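Chapter summary example.
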Amino acid sequence: MKLIIFILIVLIIASLLIRIILRSVNQHSPLLMQLHAAGIRTGDAERILSSGEYWQRQKTLLTEREVSFMKGLIRIVDMKRWYLCPQVRGADIVQLNGNIRPRSRQWWQLFRMVSQWHVDVVIVERRSFSIVAAVELDDASHLRPERRRRDILLEEVLRQAGIPLLRSYDARKLLQMTGEWLDTFRTDLQSEPEGSRGENVHRFTRQQQASETAVWKVKSDSCTEGNK
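The structure predicted for these 228 residues follows.
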């Protein structure tokens, strides 16, 4: 027992000494000096970053499947009217409204939840940069419980924000859906008042979500049969 206590004490002392040494070395780090000069208090993350080089560039922004899908979108989308923005953070296309007190505990809980998510593609109107729709190309990872939670919550967030969400496992189907939606949206802009356009947005989204529910069922049934 005494030996165990002695080993624990040695480990604690060693960790403290390492921490002190790292702090002493980092005090002369240009990064920490720059932060201190700006009046910024530093913590463990800043000290770790200043003690070495830990980051490297990702090879590509998108996966091979997503790149192939983006190329398909570029072919069918009128790039003179729309921009395609890949991998957009959820918190950059929605914001909390006045129904919740800003910076409250609940506000931060909702904000942090949405800020962790990224949408595969956001379509914006070229002249105004107004958000037209969000596009999600699903894969097998979306069958996992944690991804299902994210998908269900994201759909609700975008529904509340009035942003149509177009999603499918099938890239070809999703390309067709996106093209049809943009044609519908363009027609609505020319012929319908804003209120009618909003109703059309939600109607299209509900139809699309019903279709995707069927897709989920087919996928789940296929997985079940495969496990038998």
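To summarize the output: The chain is about 60% helix and 10% strand.
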